[in-house]
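Each field is listed here:
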Amino acid sequence: MAVEPRFYTVNEVATLLATTPNHVHAMLKRQELPGIKIGNRGQWRIERVEFEKYVKTRYVETAHELAEEAALEHDPATSERY
């Protein structure tokens, strides 16, 4: 039985999110994605639990953004008039 790792590397997170390691580094530096630096070279590690929380949060935030956009599209006060 395989044990899930506690931490992911930047490359693993990039693969999981279908993005680039540079994008993941930017997310870490903006503190959008929680991570820790380890070792003398300061390599980033992202705890699996924190990664899963991040993904769940993004689903909620995206749903709210889409709902707000839909409300604005259907609001007569914000629609364009010709």
